Amino acid sequence: MTPAKGANDPACAAVTVRLPDAVDGQQRRWTDAQATAAWGDPSTVLLTCGVAEPGPSTLPCDTRAGVDWIIDDTDAPKYRFTTYGRTPALEVYLDYDAVSGSQVLTDIGTAVGQLPTTGAVCTERPAS
């Protein structure tokens, strides 16, 4: 994995030390890039902290465990979830054939909730 431009932000360290040992049944793996994490063998969930903060988007946005996420399914069944209204931003890239995005985001929610909020919130939610 490659660290994001903002990986050395202390808020990313606050997140990575709180990440769970497993998400949706996938065990955490060692990564050697700062402010990153991976779960599964082979990796089915990749996390990178310190990515660019997204601006307003037409992509769906959902809230899990108190964190707003922009959902990009362009590469389905691989999905990219990016925090919205958090600085620095954090991205999760996962394989929906192997894990549930909803469960993964719930499992990491407490850790990701450590990121400071900007005041921006999701206004659109995906259709149920």
From TrEMBL:
InterPro entries referenced in this protein's UniProt entry, alphabetically: DUF3515
Pfam families: DUF3515
Highest taxon above the source species: Bacteria
Name of the molecule in the record: DUF3515 family protein
